[in-house]
Amino acid sequence: MPGYYLSVVKAGSSTGIVEDTCAYTYDIYLVGHKALPDAVVRNVLQAIWVNVEKLPQFHPGFAEWTRARAVDPEVTIPYHPAAIRYLKDSGVWSAKMDEAQKKLLAMNP
């Protein structure tokens, strides 16, 4: 599956992990249809953005999530236009992200 990469899972971080273990990893994606209204995208992203420190109680994967990780040039699905605007306004969207987005949209406009 595109988007997988290797990482080290620390001992004790999950049931059955008794020593540091190399594992396939994938990021958490929030997925919506490209026609999802901009206001919905912005409101959901805003809720996550301002409450990032509260998220790990809902899923352990959020313990490693940061605002900077919300943008990754190795992304495998395109961002919603409203998400791009939000991330640009937040100062985390880069020219590399524009390139990645352009490549993804060229594959499946």
Write the layout of secondary structure elements.
Blueprint: E1 5-9, E2 21-25, H1 38-50, H2 81-89, H3 95-107
Antiparallel strand pairs: 1-2
Please tell me about this protein's structure.
There is one protein chain. The protein is built from three helices and two strands, in the order E-E-H-H-H. It is of the alpha+beta class and 109 residues long. The chain has a two-stranded antiparallel ribbon with strand order 1-2. The two termini are 20 Å apart.
Oligomer: single chain
Can you write the helix and strand succession as a string? EEHHH
Quick check: average pLDDT? Answer: 89
User: How far do the termini sit from each other?
Assistant: 20 Å
Q: Structural class, from helix and strand content? A: alpha+beta
Total count of helical runs of at least 4 residues: 3
Helical amount: 25-40%
Biggest β-sheet, characterized? 2 strands, antiparallel
Low-confidence stretches are: none
Shape, please? globular
DSSP strand tally: 2
Instruction: Give the DSSP E fraction (strand runs of 2 or more residues).
Output: 5-15%
Radius of gyration equals 16 Å
Could you give the order of strands across the largest sheet? 1-2
Write a concise keyword list for the protein shown above.
single chain, 109 residues, alpha+beta, two-stranded antiparallel ribbon, 3 helices, 2 strands
Provide a compact summary of the structure:
By secondary structure, this protein is of the alpha+beta class.
